[in-house]
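Support request, please re-run this one:
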Amino acid sequence: MRIWRFGFLILICGINFCFAQIPEINKVEPANWWTGMKLNKIQLMVYGKNLKGAKAVSGSREIKIIKTHQIENSSYSFVDIEISPKAKPGLNKIKIKTNGGEASFDFPLLKRRNSADEHKGFNSSDVIYLIIPDRFANGDTTNDNYPGMFEGADRTSPGVRHGGDLQGIISKLDYLHDLGVTTLWLTPVVENNMYKYSYHGYSVTNLYKTDPRIGTNELYRKFVVEAHRKGLKVIMDHVNNHIGTHHPWMENLPMPDWFNGTALKHQEPFHSKVELDDIHTDSVIKQKAVTCWFDTTLADLNQLNPFVAKYLIQSTIWWVEFSGVDGIREDTYPYNFAEYRETWAKTVMDEYPKFNIVGEVWAEDPVLIAPYQKGGYFPRKYAPQLPCVTDFGMYDAFRKTFIDTAGRTESIFNCIAKDFLYPNPNNLMLFLDNHDIRRIAYTLNGDEKRLRLALLTLLTTRGIPQILYATEIGMKGGTDDGTLRSDFPGGFAGDKRDAFTAAGRTEQENRIYNFTSQFLKIRKEHKALQFGDLIHFRPVNDAYVYFRTYKNEKLMVVINHNKQKQEVNTSAFAYRLNKAKKLKSLITGNEIDLLSGMKIEINGMDGDIFEIID
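Re-run finished. Output below.
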């Protein structure tokens, strides 16, 4: 009887051995890490076959296996590792063992560059230039139609890819430096392999790979290096909230709760931020904002799943360390789960203390924006960790002032008067338009004087100014996204003219370029416009006056939004001028003798920046 039982056990074990299949490893994410990182406990996502019941074994003293997680899907394995603080750069073998056998992979630990040119952050001394890579310049036509990518370049249609790429941007770095901007924000460059409408970069299908129609990971790194050599910083656009529905995960879910809903059954878009902080809003309604799909082609990631959360945090830090970028612009910030987004922001900032992150909070009331900034005065369950926020409140004020036919500068005054809501008003990103909003030149119907006045205000008030590519030539674009994001003239083969050069611009474009560049250079030369305290006075007859002071530098800005020429009587704020003898225009160089009178004459729809000279 005992012999029979023993033989039966041998038979069962033999059957199990025969049916157990050898594990295969196809990919590991992240593919490497670095020595000397604060984040030295990471989770490897192993892709392959027959990985169920896997156990990871480290073949190196540099790496300790903390845990191999057991999940149902045999296509994945999640391995928690700890990298020794004393680890040295090199390859480290990790084995994956199952009942069917074993497979292994090499996990590289790289040496950190620790370059002073990297991870510098951005602040109010900077001016951010927003570029959609597909629409700026095509420097490599060989990648316009790439094998395995669903969509190729077709410039005849405004809603599809046009072929712009990283090489094109690299070729225009001298132009951007000479223009006077300091920081480049590119919309996401990671792979967006969707059938249509993904040229913008927000439909991610691979979080660790640059879209081959834009370039390669190595070329992105080269772009950052070359930008730094020109004295330009780089902001990486990032998306935690969602991915494109053609991501491979959609066909093979790592876990059932990897997303909030499915392609067939999910929460419809709910684009409202009011309910998120409304103490009277039903909790089910609040939940909709963070679990809804932004679009039917954008699957909402469930960041409450700890594996999803770790994956996203690690991929963010991987890109920052690999590329050397100086900051992040985070898309749709409020739509992420609060506990996740604040952990994400804190982890990134802990790793890179000089860094900066600006979160997109599309709400036009400062009361709704301010609670997202770190150090805020509003009680929240999860303390905000976001240093910088998009200032849609100021955008709304700019729009009401310069775009509405009955607009007045009082809108700007009233908006800035609410700065007490923010822990750091100077760490707000302000703008007249962006890639999601009709261009300022379009909304002004090409009115050059009002455009000039709007740019003068943008570049002299508090905060971090951002301008959209081709604003400096007065590009109008159109009402739809495709024409709003028109190609920069001269950036593509076959263009009839090259607006990157003075000879290729029209007379009006050159005028707009010249005053934009002049304002940028004035801002760069004067610390008071970058860091100075702002003291403003309620507009009189639609003339808005404010002072910027920093250390011994004192400047006065006058914005005359009135159509008529008028005299601004400085006696109302004479004590701000102290014993000043004259004012010198930083735009024209003209001087005004204050000893002979206290009035300044400003043309209609015009403005000036005056240096106060004692």
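The radius of gyration is 28 Å. DSSP finds 18 helices and 28 strands in the chain.
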